[in-house]
Amino acid sequence: MSDALLPLGGAAFEGIVTIRETGPQGMIQLRGDLSDPGLAAAVEQASGAAMPAPLGAHVTGPRGLLWMSPDELMVLVPYADAARTVAELGRALGDRHALVADVSDARAHFTVEGAHLRDVLAKLTPADMRREALAPGTLRRTRLAQVAAGLWLRDPLTAQVFCFRSVAGYMFDLLSAAASEGSEVFHHRA
Amino acid sequence: MSTRLATGGRLTDRSDRLEFTFNGKRLTGFAGDTLASALLANDQMLVGRSFKYHRPRGVVASGAEEPNALVNLGTGDRVEPNQRATTTELFHGLSATSQNHWPSLEHDIGALNGLVAPVLTAGFYYKMFIHPRPFWKHIYEPFIRQSAGLGRAPDPEARDPDTYEHVHAHVDVLVLGGGVAGLQAAHAAGAAGAQVLLLEQSPHLGGRAPVDGGTIDGQDPEAWVEATVAALKAMDNVDIRTRTMGAGIYDHGYVLGYERLNDHAPWLAGPRHRLWRIRAGQVVTATGAIERPLSFAGNDVPGVMLASAMRDYLVNYGVAAGDRTVVVTNNDDAYRTAIILKQAGLDVPAILDAREYGGGALAAEARALGIRVEQGRAIAKVQGGKRVTGVAICAQAGAGGLLEEIPCDAVAMSGGWSPVVHLWSHCGGKLLWDDAQAMFRPDPDRAPTGADGAPMLRVAGAANGFLRLGDTLRDAEAQGREAAAALGFTPGAGAAPAAEATEEAPLAPVWLMPQGARDDLRKKAWLDYQNDVKVSDVQLAAQEGFESVEHTKRYTTLGMATDQGKLSNINGLATLSRALGEEIPQVGTTTFRPPYTPISMGAIAGEAKGKLFQPIRKTPLHDWHEAHGAHWEPVGQWRRPYAYPQPGESVHDAVMREVTATRTGLGLLDASTLGKILVKGPDAGRFMDMMYTNMMSTLKPGRCRYGLMCSENGFLIDDGVVARIDDQTFLCHTTTGGADRIHAHMEEWLQTEWWDWQVYTANLTEQYAQIAVVGPKARAVLDKLGGMDLSAEALPFMGWAEGTLGGLPARVFRISFSGELSFEVAVPAHRGRALWERLHEAGAEFGATPYGTEALHIMRAEKGFIMIGDETDGTVIPQDLGLHWAISKKKDDYLGKRAQARSHMTDPDRWQLVGLETLEGGVLPDGAYAVAPGRNANGQRNTQGRVTSSYHSPTLGRGIAMGLVHKGPERMGEEIAFAMEDGETMMRARIVSPVFFDPDGEKQNV
């Protein structure tokens, strides 16, 4: 795996929040009937996380489950485990109608860390960044400025942002600009 | 003369002296000054020239409504025209210049326009410049452009060095305006538990109350404001932003705010402006009221000012607009100005009260101070040119007969107050005419409504027509509570503070002074200062038949300047209604539109400038391409290498080299941008048969098939190679630009029409780096990497295989878009760079050459392969392109089948795809038309075909092209002429097969 290159090689920026490119992150796209207990058992087994409710993000370290849409989940596993997990999931799902694909390389990940993270994200997304609307464990698929993105809070002071790989550079520049010196908003409470 | 008094100025800090320049002249002011107050402190009464007549103009107001004091602010890359001096905070080093004069502010040749003013009336341009026609463009327009207009646009090469940003906020109650009403409404809503955001356009909270006096809860208004702001700041659920204007209100509680972060301190780090994009549950506008001018002759001479503004300059900045001020009014409020001036030791020779019955308690107070008060009197005319020297007095009831002349150097006027209803009206709130107060105020029964049909907006205080302090606060408390209650919060037991204000006598509407003013006086009585519109212009419009206020506005330009008629609207429409003999409510108002005052383009753009102007999509190999001198081509939001010119090599030569190297040895192409959509499910085969014109369900796992996709209208929308992964799974390759669009197209059909089919799709485009390995040495280099058997037997043409190639997990598709032996290798994106570099390393001995999109295009054109977007343009069906072989005859249906059976689609006269070979070896211009004899009904030349792709082929050593030609395939060998850009010169070409090179496919089948 030594030849696996992150889109930006792990770029970082220090401003009113800290931006860091993270990964590689194993990601498996799963489309299927999320109300099927057999499917839930399979993804819980694969990720070690509990099945999330709509808009849920159950993540611990590199493992977890993200609720992406009414018929789609993202299964998070360590990067090196992704191919094996795809095969295991395929077996566990048997002949259920489902789509399982390794998309570990399709997206870039960033952490946004610091007390101003809600204000910084609110500069870029129209989604509600208030505490009551985005508690840790809530996933938002939205846009940041001109590109699609997803985000959730790992803890009250750390947001995880992901976007398509091809716009990783745009995303990093965007987050960095939103975190530039002197641009504190002091509107959202941490 | 205007001057700074020895003491006073509650907003200025006299210990902090600031230097600034006006028209290059060095002046000083104090911290806390506005540019307007600092100019007045320096006796700079004349601040600009008017739009049409170049009349001298001075500061008339003290806030956002100012029409005259517009300046060019800043220099070089930071120059900005039309900045209001009244809302520009002074800072050390500020540089301003006045506008619309030549050669100088003091001596302006354009003022000669004033001499011909009698002909420059409303509609003059329309009447005068219509004939002779060519004169408009060549003579009139250049002259008018030179003479009219206000600020100068920045140099086209200037680049704004500042940064801007947006921020989104979601709040329960948004309060716009931070005067006492706004503060009280915010307090009421905040106390009920709602999340409150309050925006105030100026740097100070409290609005006019500290200047206008009275008591609130027994306190001086300033002390009350201080205590209330402190209480609000202590509330965790209230956020107060000063220097932030509520700019516009839109549907569903969407509001734009405009924050100016460092206009007052340009040395600060951070963004200059911030655009607030707010979603509010309820909005309360507490935007106050604006004083109206009176329409008398010479009401635009520098030194004539709104009475409230004169009070503001005195109390807030310690600046007197004059030593001897005549006050003219139709209401009691202006007496406050006279009293304050007198108390400051300045002379007030007279108060001219247009009302026969005169004023109330304030008038008595003025009289007690020894001020002469004249009832039923008016100004016939202001004397003076560049500044006021006196006023001629007459009876308000008459036509302007002179009674007396009073020397003075300033005039304070008040025609009553107009609530700021702009924001209420932005989103459809309707207005009521309040006859007693002579004002339009919001009609609470016709409020802007939200998605639930209930009012989303309330108005509080003076903006709601409550001009007296106590009424204002009671209304504000009620509106704040109701806004919170509308969102389900329970207001507590709090009550509005008790306020005391002096009793006032009723106002008398005065729309013209004197009421029967003679013609010569009406022609000097200004309504719209900024656009130079007079009472006589509006009367003329009415006389000429303009009955609608909207038409009159456009004909006279009343209210169309950058101030949007904040001072002139009501006076203008009252003048119109009188001229039409109708009541004011019958005439109605013009439409208020956002923004309330102009906001910067930078704030609208936000972060989207420079490298953030648009996202650029980059493949995993992008950095390599950049390091190797790629000449880029934008393809959608992607950047793809067009070619890789070497040092000293032209782009064209590079393309030729890349084609030859690929055809003779080994070429490598970054094909990562091609769309890759996974289609899976028990109904996948059935779905694929509907999506593609071909039969896809019969494709065997391990095999690939080229397919076409059409819209339901039959037109070709995309093409690409489909690989069958297993029984239930297909991988669809799309064009670069088609990836997202085709994925959405598939999902739309699955979600809306075939929701009961068991099919899932996934867009895997970005998961893979895909590299085309092309040329006679393609297999050799892959064999060198090792790990997979890619022999002709193991992996025949149009097959795919999965394995480990050079240590990387790979899928290899044996497909060709060039006619060469060709493999497309897909690896996980993070490892694309590794594969690319290994291929270059291993391919060095074969002359491995990276090639770009242009070489790709040439090679596909040499083979006669179509390109979506070149051979198709949304009007082309596969049958036009000779692609009948890719349209299944066996299937019952596919998207587009029915449309393709319609008569126009089967018309034998449709233009058909052919190859075009130029006779003299030249290259046909892309898009050129083949001319046919005769002309059509519109007099245009008839055509019989057009070029869809055209290149110089290095392989064949001549120009090749593809084109759509009338009955083309039946005309092989015929020569036709294509018109060049001039429409006259022709280039001849022979109709040939579109397959120019290796028609039997011998090169790819090895």
UniProtKB/TrEMBL annotation, chain A:
InterPro entries, A to Z: SoxG (IPR007375), TrmE/GcvT-like (IPR027266)
Gene3D superfamilies assigned to the protein according to its UniProt record, in alphabetical order: Heterotetrameric sarcosine oxidase, Probable tRNA modification gtpase trme, domain 1
A Pfam match: SoxG
SUPFAM superfamilies: Folate-binding domain
Name of this protein: Sarcosine oxidase subunit gamma
Lineage: Bacteria, Pseudomonadati, Pseudomonadota, Alphaproteobacteria, Rhodobacterales
UniProtKB/TrEMBL annotation, chain B:
SoxA A3 domain boundaries: 523-606
GO MF terms held by the record: sarcosine oxidase activity
Keyword presence, Oxidoreductase: yes
InterPro entries tied to this protein: 2Fe-2S-bd_N, FAD/NAD-bd_sf, GcvT/YgfZ/DmdA, GcvT/YgfZ_C, GcvT_C, GCVT_N, Sarcosine_oxidase_asu, SoxA_A3
GO BP annotation list: tetrahydrofolate metabolic process
Signal peptide: none
Protein name stated in the entry: Sarcosine oxidase subunit alpha
Organism: Pseudoponticoccus marisrubri
